[in-house]
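User: Show me a protein chain along with its predicted structure.
Assistant: Here is one chain, sequence first, then structure tokens.
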Amino acid sequence: MIILNVVSTIVALVGGFLGIVSWISGRKKEKEIHQEQEDMWKLYIYIHNAFNKGNGNVWTPDTGSADHKFAEKMIEKGWLERAPMGGYCLPGTFLSS
């Protein structure tokens, strides 16, 4: 009977430990997602302000760069559109300028 109590205690401790590790991992992933969304929003505001100041209407980040990856994610969200020659523009603005 004592062995059963010891085994069940060990299983409970391991389960609790794994639960804590899982919670920490999930929390870390949430922070990473939140940070990426915040960085993407800041980049969008920068692009939007640059376009409004008359600095053109097409943004062309280097292929494979972090900005390029953010631009592709912004397309998925509908924040940007693809422009000819590999550039990006605000939705509906490329041909209207």
